[in-house]
Design goal:
mainly alpha; globular; about 60% helix; about 140 residues
């Protein structure tokens, strides 16, 4: 596969599974600790809620010696996504947690992935997650 910079990227299944676990855990955390739109009405409150959830999930993974906390790009990637799709959607659709979970599970379903747009999301996300492991020997088997 190739990323947006037309660089060849090798997708390692174990990493895909790890990144999916992180993504789903972040989704669950955001929903679990979400109060309501009135409580998170301004951008500072939204960012604080999101940061709490992101850091909590990072801390959980750190217990397994997997450190995503310093990957600012992955934090910003998900913040922008959830800000636009969950916290401040531009429409009145009622998207459920199950809808978000289905979307992310489809992104990470590499064995049966046929939709070009989801493949692009996976490649971009994979590359961004991988920055957490630069110069580290984790999941080096292909």
């Amino acid at each position: 596969m190739k990323n947006n910079n037309n660089q060849k990227i090798i997708i390692i299944k174990d990493r895909v599974d790890l990144y999916e676990d992180f993504t789903i855990n972040l989704l669950y955390c955001i929903y679990h600790y979400y109060l309501d739109k009135n409580s998170l009405s301004n951008d500072d409150d939204i960012y604080n809620h999101y940061s709490f959830c992101f850091n909590k999930v990072c801390d959980d993974f750190l217990e397994e010696e997997i450190d995503f906390k310093n990957n600012i790009e992955i934090k910003e990637y998900f913040y922008k996504y959830y800000y636009n799709q969950f916290y401040k959607p531009n429409n009145n659709l009622n998207v459920t947690m199950a809808d978000f979970e289905d979307f992310w599970r489809n992104v990470f379903a590499i064995e049966k992935q046929r939709k070009r747009n989801l493949i692009n999301v996976l490649v971009d996300l994979y590359g961004t997650f991988d920055k957490s492991f630069i110069n580290k020997n984790i999941f080096q088997t292909v």
